[in-house]
Amino acid sequence: MTAQSQAESFESFFRRYQAQVSGYLWRMTCNEQIVLDLCQETFFRAWQHFEQIRTYPHPASWLFRVATNLALQDIRRRSSPVGAATPFADDERDPAASDPGRRVAESELVRQTLLALPPKQRALLVLREVYDVPFEELAEMMEMSASATRMALSRAREQFRQIYRRKDGGKDA
Amino acid sequence: MHDLVRHCTQNMSVDALSGWRDDTLGPEVAERVATHLPTCRACQAYLHEYEQDALRLRRFTPPSLQAEAWQLIERRMRQPPAPPPRLRVIFTRWSVPFVVLTLIVLFALLLNNGGRRPSPVTQVPTTTVAHGTPNGAPTGTPNARQGWTDIPALSFGKSVAFAASDPQTGYVCGNNPAAGATASLQIAATHDGGRTWGQPLTSGIANQAACRLAVNPSDPQEVAMNVSACWEGCSGSGQYGPDLYRSFDGGRTWQPSTFPTSGGNVGISAPVWAKGAMFVYTTTTGANSVVPFQRGAHSVAVSLNNGPLGWVNDATMFAGMSDLSVEITNAFTYNGAYFVQVNGATFKTTDYGATWSRLASVDTIVITAVAADGSTLLGQHTADHQYIRSVDGGVSWTPFAVPPNTTRIVTTPNGTYYVWQDDASATTPKTIYRQTPGGTTWTPVAVIDPLQRPTLTWAVVSWDAHGQPQHLWATEATEATSAVSVASSHIPASASGYLPGIAQHAP
């Protein structure tokens, strides 16, 4: 394959998977600049191994694995949640259903809730619920046993459920 | 110590519910949960909340970073790799020519790409693909055009579909009758929710008058297109197709997907995806099975890992099959089963069609739609066509009131329902009604008057990044050829097996 067709093929690969990778990193970090940095790094690594990755039946798995490692490293390095949550005004808590502000409010609640979860649980929850990563693949990706993954995912779900509702005006959690 | 579900009288653990959601429970626990769930509102509420949370997570989408990210990566790709120390001298010697050569290649690449990419065009009113606002066109008006804006750039449009994972991306396919029946099908794409559309691309697929599009819910760049000589009612075989084409690059190039056996195929559904596999539903035998989805032998084919299509069942098992729908517990991520209606019975598969199990509780129900949050299933009794709704995965059902002559239900990620009221009359206006999340009443939001637009048919509803309905889309569902009667040219109701407006919103 020529360098040109290789680059062309990689651009197509990037356009195909970029939304998934940046969406995942967004939910992991909630910070646009970090998403940009980590997304760039993930795809640059993919470029370095493109000959091999392109033959995988599910290249997204490889990308998620790299993105997960990068995100967890980044979060550890910063040692505190990124995208620190901003105070949530009382009058934003219960907007009318038809109010466009509701989506904004929900987005902020989701952000705060995600950042309140331990990073690994956050990764498990997002990969499973948003990207439908198979359970076995999740365990392998996180280097955890199946039972530990099952337990961690269950805790992530339940914590998200409780924290979100607590933040959403103290509804029944 | 396991956390328990609050208010559950049988002390069900949240781990069991979580495992149920992931389908990771052992057979005994799964059986216990399956028996318990229909009777326990507390556990149902927990599962519902888990689904609501998943929906919230999926709606939490990032700003578009594609252009910026690609610029950064491209810049790094241009840089020569850092040399290992012992090669530093060699690298220094060759670095300048290398960089120059790389730049030349990338420049040529950019020029080449620039020629292939569609450029945005602006919309100006005229014919064929139209969209209306989902919140408010006046109803009952004799002017069917009111509330609808025709898009001239898409005057060839026959089918429209939006990407669930990126609702700003959508596609239109069709051919311009003026160009003749043998003209190649055209494809256009939007990346801003339909505000602007790229210049139509030529697919290279000729001699086909009808097409039906679907977008992989997990990948906005993967589009599948069913093409045929007509929507339905084609007689004979061979030349009428159907054929399935797939594009993995946003409609720029298309690859045919051949069915394992051919002969008399006259129609297939738009594809549906689950667990990454793509399913299509087709009639498989000839002479009399001229109306897709209604008669003759039917079958399901599946493509795993983007591979070739293979039959997943014995065609005789599915004789009389009338629909193919997505799973019920997690529609956004296609986490589970498929339902197939076969002579009044409903089957589901969770293993790509290798095995099917019969769902006794829904034998008299046609599954018609999966609600946006994935926890609600909509169906229709085969006997009296009454619509019903299930919020427990199809175990129990309650009546679901809809306007009379409702022929189709579509839901959106924020839980809004839309129905299409069509009494099949050539003179009565056809109305689209909306029910807001949690509501019980229907509000008319758009009308199409067949006297003025006899072949305009509501196609899909699209939504914004927050799941709010954005546009209703309608297409002219006629073939290019004049030999096919207009009366049979509506998009078949079974096309809703693709369920374009449902819960396919996954980032």
Low-pLDDT parts of chain B are 84-92, 110-128, 131-146, 235-240, 284-296, 327-337, 370-374, 479-507
What portion of the residues of chain B fall into strands of 2 or more residues? Answer: 25-35%
- End-to-end distance of chain A, in Å? 56 Å
Main β sheet profile of chain A: none
Count the beta strands of chain B: 30
Overall average residue pLDDT of chain A: 81
- Give the low-confidence spans of chain A: 80-100
| Helix content class of chain B | 10-25%
Helix content of chain A: over 70%
Which descriptor suits the 3D outline of chain A?
A: globular
Mean pLDDT of chain B: 65
Structural class of chain A: mainly alpha
Helical region count of chain B?
Answer: 5
Q: What is the alpha-carbon Rg of chain B in Å? A: 24 Å
Main interface: chain pair and counts: A-B, 58 and 64 residues
Q: How does the overall form of chain B come out from the CA principal axes?
A: globular
Task: Explain how this protein is built.
The complex is a heterodimer of chains A (173) and B (507). Chain A is an all-alpha fold and 173 residues long. Chain A contains eight helices and no strands. Chain A is globular and about 60 Å long. Chain B is an alpha+beta fold and 507 residues long. The chains are: A mainly alpha (173), B alpha+beta (507). At the A-B interface, helix 1, helix 2, helix 5, helix 6 and helix 8 of A face helix 1, helix 3, helix 4 and helix 5 of B.
Give a brief description.
By secondary structure, chain A is mainly α. Chain A is built from 8 helices and no strands. The N and C termini of chain A lie far apart (56 Å).
Supply database-style keywords.
heterodimer, A: 173 residues, mainly alpha, 8 helices, 0% strand, globular, B: 507 residues, alpha+beta, four-stranded antiparallel sheet, 5 helices, disordered C terminus
Strand and helix map with partners:
The complex is a heterodimer of chains A (173) and B (507).
Chain A: H1 3-29, H2 32-48, H3 50-53, H4 59-78, H5 101-116, H6 119-129, H7 135-142, H8 146-167
Chain B: H1 14-22, H2 27-36, H3 41-59, H4 66-78, H5 88-116, E1 120-121, E2 129-132, E3 148-151, E4 157-162, E5 170-174, E6 186-190, E7 197-198, E8 201-202, E9 210-215, E10 223-228, E11 243-247, E12 255-257, E13 272-274, E14 277-283, E15 298-303, E16 309-311, E17 321-325, E18 338-342, E19 345-349, E20 357-359, E21 365-370, E22 377-381, E23 387-390, E24 398-399, E25 406-411, E26 417-421, E27 430-435, E28 443-448, E29 456-463, E30 469-476
Antiparallel strand pairs in B: 1-7, 2-3, 2-30, 4-5, 5-6, 6-8, 9-10, 10-11, 11-12, 13-14, 14-15, 15-16, 17-18, 18-19, 19-20, 21-22, 22-23, 23-24, 25-26, 26-27, 27-28, 29-30
Helix pairs in contact in B: 1-3
